Amino acid sequence: MRILLIIFLCLLPVYSFAEIKTITKTSKVVVPENQSVEQVKQYTSEKLFREAAEEAGVAVSSSTVLVDGKVSKDEIKMQTSAIAKKDVKILNQEIDKGLTYITVQVTATVDSSELDAFLRQLMQNEALKQELEKERKEKLELEKRLKSASKEEYDSTLSAQAENIAKIRAARQKQLETEISNAKQQLMEAQRRQKAEELQAAKELEQIQKEYMARDAALQERIAAEKDAQAKAEMEHQALLAELSQNAFVNDKAMDISSNDTVEMAAIDAARVRVNFAALVKEFNTAINANSKQMEIYHKSQLLVLEKQKFTEKMPKKGEWDNTTTYNAKIAAYNKRRQAFEDKKQTDIAILKAEYENKTEKNIKESKQTLLNALSPLYERLKKYNTGDYISSDTSKAVIDFGERDLDRLELPVIIKYQFKTYDFIYTFTSLQEFRAMYETRASFRAVPVYALEPNGVKGAKQYLKGFRVVHLGNNQEKFFAVDAKYEIFPEIKQYEDMQEELKPKQKEEDKKENDYVLSNNKEKVYKAPTSDTVKIMDNTYKTSYWLYGFAGAGGFDLNIMNIEFGVQTHWRFNRWFGIYTNGSLLLGISGLNTLNNLKDNYDDYYIHSSGSNSSTLDTGLALGLGLDFYLTNRVLLFGEANAAYYIEDDSKKSSFAGVIRGGLAFQSEDMRGIGMRFNIFIEGIISDTVSGSTPYFGAALYF
C-alpha cells in the first residue's frame, strides 16, 4: 500500500491542468527628502509583489485541484511568493508643489503546473519521512519477535522480511529515478528562467538608457530655452542702455553754452548738468539692477533643473545562477553608471555656475562702461566749470595800484583791491624798455576778476574767485595772477573718476600730479592750488609758516603772584604731526596781590624777588624761547616751550636771569592763514640762580 501511495502521488499531475494567473498591483507614493527614488521603489515593489503573489496563489488554488487538496491556503500563499515571477516598473515620476511622486506597478505571474510540482515535491518529502519512521518501528517490532520466535518462525520471518526489503528497494529505486527526472526538469526550467531573466534585464537596461537619453534631451532643450530667454532679456537691456546714452548725448548738445557767458549763466547750466548726471546714473542703476535680478532668476531656474535630476536605474538583484564574481561584476557596472551620472550632473552644475559668474561680471562691466560713455560729456563740462575762466556780471570793478618798482629785477608790485580785500602780485617785465613804456602808461592797466564754479549743496553751483587778468590796454598784453584759492570739486567728477578706476586693470596707483592734490576738510574733498608756503603731506595741505600775536597770563591759586606776557610767535609746520616755533615776549610780574603789607618776602615769587617790606612789587623783563608742537588733529595739539628770561625788579636795584618752562594743550583754527586763532592752556615753572623748584603756576594764552 505504501508503494501504491507513492506511485499515486507521482501520477497526480495527470489529473490537473496547467493555468497561468497574473495579478497587477499599482501604487503612487511620495519620495521623502532623505530617501532616493530607488529606495522608495524597492520597498514599495516588495510590498506590492507580496500582495500580488498571495492573491495569485489563492486564485490558482481555487480553480485547480492542487495535490488532492492536502495543502492549506496559507501554505499556498507562502510558497507562491517563492516561485512567482515579478515585473516592476515606474510608470510615472512627477514633481508637485515641491514633492516628488512616483507611480510603481508590480506584476506577479504564477504557473499552476510549477506550483503543483513545487508543492508535490514537498509532499513527497513528507511521505518519505513518514515511510522511514514506519519502517523503523516495524524493524523494532521484528527484532522483538525474532528474539522469542522458533527456528521455523525465524526462517519464515526472515524470508518475508527479505522479500519485503527487496520490494522496498525496488520502490525506492523507482522513486529515486523519478526524483532525478524531476530534478533534471527543474534544472532545465531554472536555466530557461535564468535566460529569460537575463534577456529581460538587458531589455530593461536598454529601456532605461533610452529613457535617460530622452530625459537628457528634454533637459538640454529646457536649458536652451532658458538661455534663449536670458539672451533676449540681455539684448533688451543693452537696447535700453543705448537709448539712455543717446538721450544723454542729445540733452548735452542742447544744453551747451558759450564760453563767453558769465559765471552766473555757467552756474545755472552747471546745476542742470548735475541734475541730469544724477538722473542718468539713477536710470542706469535701475536698469542694471533689474537685469541682474532677471539673470539671477534664469540662473536659479536652470540650476534647479540640473539639481533635481535623479538616477532612476534600480540596483540589480542576484540571479538564481549568479555566482559571486558575476554578481559583483553587475554591481560594479551599475555603480560605474551611477557614478558617471553623478559626475556629469556635478560637472554641468559647475559649468552653469561659472558661466553665470562670468556673464554677470561681464554684464556689469559693460553696463558701467556704457554709463561712463553716456556721462562723459557731462563730466567734461563739470570739469570745465570747476577750473574754467568766467567773468562776473557784477558791476563792481577791481581797483589796481602799484608799489615800489624794482629796476634791477624788472619787477613791479601790483596791488589789486576788490570787494574789500587786497591782493598783492609781482608783475615781471621782459626788458627795461618794456618796463619803462608800460610803467609810464600804467593808467592803462586794468584788472578783471576771473571766476570758476564749485558745488553748492546737492544740486547747485556757486562761483569762487580764481584770480585776475591784468591787461595793459595800450598793447593788449595780458597776464593772469592766481589767488590762493581753495575750492571744492563737484562730487559728480569724483564719482565718474571712481567708476573709471574700477574698470581699469588692477595696478599700482600712479602718483597724482603736484597741482591736482586733495585737501581733506571735514571728510569733504577740496582742491588746493599749490603755493610757495604750503606742503603736500598724505593728500593734505598744511600752512608751514605763520605769525601769531597775543598775550598770556599765569599765576598761583592764591592769586598772590600774577604774570602777564605780551608775545610774538613764528610757527613752522613740517608735516602732519610736528611743528616748531619761536617765542619772544615782554614780561610783567606782579607779586603781593593778596596782602597789604608783607613784612617778609619769603614766598616763591614768579620772577625772583629780594626780601623787602613793600606790600606789592612790579617786575619787568624780556624772554626768548623755542617750542615744539605735536598735532593730535588739525585743531588740537600738545606743545612744550622753554624760554630764557631777563628781568629787573621794580626798585631797579637787582636784575636776574631765569629759565621759564611751559607745557600744555592748544586749540587752534584748522587753517591758520589770514585770521587764525590759537588758545593755550598750560602749566609753567621757573629755574633761577636764587630759587629752584618753584611751585608750578597755571595759565592761559590767546594768540591771533
Number of strands: 22
Average pLDDT taken over every residue: 77
How would you describe the shape? elongated
Q: What proportion strand?
A: 25-35%
Overall number of structural domains: 5
Explain what you see.
The protein contains nine helices and 22 strands. With 704 residues, the chain is α+β, with helices and mostly antiparallel strands. The chain has five domains: 213 residues, no CATH class; 171 residues, no CATH class; 85 residues, no CATH class; 38 residues, no CATH class; 164 residues, Porin, CATH 2.40.160. The N terminus is likely disordered.
Q: What are the SSEs and their pairings?
A:
Blueprint: H1 2-10, E1 20-31, H2 37-63, H3 73-83, E2 85-96, E3 99-111, H4 112-148, H5 151-255, H6 263-307, H7 324-387, E4 399-402, E5 411-418, E6 421-428, H8 432-440, E7 445-456, E8 460-472, E9 477-482, E10 486-488, H9 491-503, E11 518-521, E12 524-528, E13 534-537, E14 540-543, E15 545-555, E16 561-573, E17 578-591, E18 617-631, E19 636-648, E20 655-668, E21 678-688, E22 697-703
Antiparallel strand pairs: 1-3, 2-3, 4-5, 5-6, 7-8, 8-9, 10-12, 11-12, 13-14, 15-16, 15-22, 16-17, 17-18, 18-19, 19-20, 20-21, 21-22
Helix pairs in contact: 1-4, 1-5, 2-3, 3-4, 5-6, 5-7, 6-7, 7-9
